[in-house]
Design goal:
This protein has 645 residues and is of the alpha+beta class. Among the domains are: 201-241 and 249-409, Sulfite Reductase Hemoprotein, domain 1 (2-Layer Sandwich); 414-489, Sulfite Reductase Hemoprotein, domain 2 (Alpha-Beta Complex), CATH 3.90.480; 494-632, Sulfite Reductase Hemoprotein, domain 1, CATH 3.30.413. A five-stranded antiparallel β-sheet has the order 3-4-7-6-14. α6 (140-152) runs antiparallel to α14 and α11 (349-363) crosses α13. The longest helix is centred in the middle third of the chain and has 16 residues, at 211-226. The two termini are 35 Å apart.
Length: 645
């Protein structure tokens, strides 16, 4: 049963000193739940705009109580009139950049301010835009528009992200409104792709015509709709208030408006989020049993469809508390796996998700953003207390977690039958960067055959709804453009991931996307040197900083930037992404990687048990023994090295 293994995996976390997380009492309106506070909506007269401020007050005034400490971002959110001011004014200025407050607010609109760190002198400010595509679904029209925008306003490339979205890099401030409005008017959105709210909701990208897959994808889309901001700030800013929202399913509207358990802000433009939104970003994924193409345990909420013997969906298992980000040399920050919360019948999933989100909204830390993710709340409280509080907002007890089969990583590369007469084709894209001839040919194929596409959580792309008669001509076009049949892609590349890092990400300490192609070639060379076969592989993920955007802490070999041309080496994840890696070594210079990897891979080849993965091997051997092996290593030819261990 997965619940057991995940609990064991989190045992490491439980040994950390318990954080004393200060409860943030103060965002929810009055209701029947004991933890409630009241909210007063106060119009503030201003020549700039009418500010609406949420003010929290204790139920019983306490003269000795002091206002809870809040981070600078919390103040910016509160004073922004639902994420409008001062961004609206900053966008009108002639300057190429925006101020600090606007920089924080534009994240909620789906954008980050950046500059090219390779250039010296005056900063060349530009903006990255990230779309929001639940399940990774991209309609034909939107793909073609994104392709055009990359050439007209960006750096000429499209990037597929680890959360099934696009990123456009290099957008100038003066072009932001044009690009944003074009995306919105062509079936796209960037709303909530960044910022302190629910991010893109993941689901398997495979377009199978199966009840469970279709239900998982529908559920992901409904959750995304439920947790989409409602106050209209996004449309006010980018399309002059014109609403582009499509009709929502009635069950989504009903769940959002339901306040029978004190979850909502009555009469607020943001019934779920209020003026403060969430303490930090929030990530949700939905999948079916066995399909771990989405890294289910890395999300704040992981949801698994449970079916009956005929494959008909009955309900959902729910995991909570996953998250990757951490801070170097601060042991009170850590990556964490989600753990089982319970099971709910299918008709209750939106209410259960809303209850979890509100629990985090009310109790997640707002004073120190390093500790604001829900994983720290659960690590502090323990799962039993967390479940009890969520149940107050849910209005019911969770049922016991249902037993699940073993998880498997699925890439969906190559050709597959959808089950409805059509085919789909998964294409491997190194680091998710679509550029050059590949970009040109991909556009031609998508346009010619009117194909919809999907983005995978492994930064690849799936062409959907292909008529069998088109297969040969599409294959020929893709081959000519350099898209390899997955059988001919190095297995190391098939599972590798990297974040963009340098030159644009302001948080990057070292290279990731630009560095990993060479690192993978060097790893393959080490494999050849120690006698590992060409079809053997390990899951390698690299990030330029400890935030973990490419989920390196789930890799068998994770490389986490910790200095110029330097990485922390993490070992011990598994090929199916169900175990947390651990930090093995600090400050390994990129040119010294072979000194670490060669003895590890040599010993894996010669001392592994039957079918034992590299990650499991490193955990079984133990880090002290592995470090001893590295210290004594004199090369593969020195057989006595191996025998002496």
């Amino acid at each position: 049963m997965m619940g057991t293994s995940v609990g064991a995996a989190n045992a490491v976390v439980s040994k950390e000193p318990k954080l004393q997380i200060q409860k943030f009492n103060g965002l929810r309106s009055s209701g029947s739940v004991p933890l409630s506070r009241c909210v007063r909506v106060i119009p503030v007269s201003s020549s700039k705009s009418s500010l609406i401020t949420a003010v929290s007050t204790p139920i019983k005034p306490d003269a000795s109580s002091k206002e809870a400490k809040r981070s600078k971002v919390e103040i910016i959110k509160e004073q922004s009139n639902f994420l409008r001011y001062p961004l609206n004014e900053e966008l009108l200025s002639e300057a190429p950049n925006i101020n600090e407050a606007a920089t924080q607010l534009i994240k909620f609109h789906g954008s980050y301010q950046q500059y090219n760190r390779d250039e010296r002198g005056v900063k060349s400010y530009q903006f990255m835009l990230r779309t929001k595509n639940p399940c990774g679904k991209v309609p034909n029209k939107l793909y073609l528009v994104m392709d055009d925008l990359a050439d007209q306003f960006g750096i000429g490339t499209l990037r597929l992200t680890t959360r099934q979205t696009f990123q456009l890099h290099g957008i100038l401030k003066k072009d932001l409104k044009t690009v944003m409005s074009t995306i919105i008017r062509n079936m796209g959105s960037t709303l909530g792709a960044c910022g302190d709210l629910n991010r893109n909701v993941l689901a398997p990208a495979a377009p199978f015509a199966r009840k469970d897959y279709l239900f998982a994808q529908e559920t992901a889309e409904n959750i995304a709709a439920l947790l989409t901001p409602q106050s209209g700030f996004y449309y006010d800013m980018w399309v002059d208030g014109e609403k582009m929202m499509s009709a929502e399913p009635p069950e989504v509207v009903k769940a959002r408006n339901d306040n029978s358990h004190g979850t909502n802000f009555p009469d607020s433009p943001e019934p779920i989020y209020g003026t403060q939104f969430l303490p930090r970003k929030f990530k949700i994924a939905v999948t079916v049993p066995t399909d771990n193409s989405i890294d289910i345990l890395t999300n704040d909420i992981g949801i698994v469809v449970v079916t009956d013997a005929d494959g008909k969906p009955q309900g959902f298992n729910i995991y909570v508390g996953g998250g990757m980000g951490r801070t170097h040399r601060l042991e009170t920050t850590f990556p964490r796996l989600g753990e089982p919360l319970g099971y709910v019948p299918k008709e209750d999933i939106l209410y259960a998700v809303k209850a979890i989100v509100v629990t985090q909204r009310e109790n997640g830390r707002r004073d120190d953003r390093k500790y604001s993710r829900m994983k720290y709340l659960i690590s502090s409280w323990g799962i039993e207390k967390f479940r009890s509080v969520v149940e107050q907002y849910y209005g019911k007890k969770f049922e016991p977690f249902r037993e699940l089969p073993e998880w498997q990583f699925k890439s969906y590369l190559g050709w597959h039958e959808q089950g409805d007469g059509g085919l789909f084709c998964g294409l491997h894209v190194d680091n998710g960067r679509i550029k050059g001839n590949m970009k040109k040919t991909l556009r031609e194929v998508i346009e010619k055959y009117n194909l919809d596409v999907r983005i995978t959580p492994n930064q690849n792309i799936v062409l959907c709804n292909i008529h069998p008669d088109w297969r040969d001509s599409i294959t020929a076009a893709l081959d000519q453009a350099g898209f390899l049949d997955p059988r001919y892609v190095d297995p190391l590349n098939l599972t590798a991931m990297a974040c963009p890092a340098l030159p644009l990400c302001p948080l990057a300490i070292t290279e990731a996307e630009r560095g990993i192609p060479d690192i993978l070639k060097r790893v393959r060379a080490v494999f050849n040197k120690v006698g590992l076969k060409d079809n053997e592989s390990v899951v390698i993920r690299a990030t330029g900083c400890p935030n973990g955007c490419a989920r390196p802490y789930m890799a068998e070999l994770g490389l986490v930037g910790d200095g110029p041309n330097s990485y922390q080496v993490w070992l011990g994840g598994t090929p199916n992404q169900t175990s947390l890696a651990k930090c093995f070594m600090d400050k390994v210079k990129v040119h010294d990687l072979e000194k670490v990897l060669e003895p590890l891979f040599y010993n894996w080849k010669h001392k592994r048990q039957a079918e034992e993965s590299f990650g499991n091997f490193t955990i079984r051997m133990g880090f002290e023994k592995l470090k001893e092996i590295i210290e004594k290593w004199e090369g593969p030819a020195e057989k006595h090295q191996l025998n002496s261990t």
